[in-house]
Every structure is written in C-alpha cells, then in structure tokens.
Design brief:
mainly alpha, 0% strand
C-alpha cells in the first residue's frame, strides 16, 4: 500500500468522524431544546397554580379579587394595590405563555389552558377597567391580542 492510499483512507475516516460528530451534536441540541421547552411550560403552569393557590388560601385577597373583578372603582388604597398586583402577576403569566406559544415553545393545546381563563377574566368589567390603566406593562403583541378579545363583537360571558 502506498502513502496516497493511506492518506485517502485517513481522509475518509476523518470525514466519517466529522459526520458522526455532527449527527451526535444535532441529537444533543434537539434534546436540549425539548428540555428547555418542557421547563418553560412547567414554569408557566407553576406560576398559574401558585396564583390559584394564593386565591384559594387567602380569604382577604380572594374577597378583594372578587370585588375588583366586578367593580375596579370600588377598591381603595391597599385593596387597589393588592388587586393590581395579583391581576398584574396573572397577566404577566399570560403574557409569557402567549410569547412561548408564539415562539412554538408552548403547544397550542396547552396555550388553550391559559387562553380560556384569560378570556373569562376579560369578561369582567373590573378587569377591563384595570387593563385600560395597565396595558402598557405588557408586550405589544400581547396587548394587541387582549384588545382584540375585549373589542370583539362576540360578547364574553361573565363567569359565575
């Protein structure tokens, strides 16, 4: 065997090694992306569950929340701050979930789990009034989506 043949074999083996490395890297990147998507979804779900748990366990806050949903203008001082904070937190979760859904990180079926309670909340006059004062806190695409829901010809039913 001459040196040219040995060199050619070495080049073929080197190219095969590069291809195998690239395939391995692609598999690892795909697995990492899947793990990041799962983590993002988990964080959004945790935040929403925490919100619901807070309302369920804090009687004072749940009363303020209910009054604020119905009549934002009736809230005063600390109540107004608590309502604005809790709704602001929840809409931040919705904004982040909306972003994840737009980016393809959040599956459409999971997005529906955020969109349905959000639409229910937007039916309340207090949330609409709150939104009119705090929409600027959120991303432009999210604001556009919320405004479209609020201004749609289809009235949102007020949940009981």
């Amino acid at each position: 065997m001459n040196w040219e043949a040995i060199g050619a074999i070495g080049e073929v083996l080197g190219a095969a090694g590069v291809i195998i490395s690239l395939v391995y890297l692609a598999v690892q990147i795909r697995a990492d992306a899947r793990a990041k998507r799962a983590s993002a979804v988990h964080e959004q779900s945790d935040a929403y569950r925490d919100f619901l748990q807070t309302l369920a366990t804090d009687e004072t806050l749940s009363g303020i929340y209910l009054r604020g949903l119905r009549d934002y203008g009736s809230l005063r001082d600390a109540e107004l701050i608590r309502f604005t904070s809790v709704i602001g937190f929840l809409f931040r979760v919705f904004d982040e979930a909306f972003f994840q859904w737009q980016e393809g990180t959040l599956d459409s079926q999971l997005w529906q789990g955020f969109e349905a309670p959000m639409a229910d909340m937007l039916a309340y006059p207090g949330v609409k009034e709150w939104w009119s004062t705090r929409a600027h806190w959120y991303s432009a695409p999210f604001r556009e989506m919320i405004d479209t829901k609020i201004n749609s010809d289809i009235p949102l039913p007020i949940p009981r």
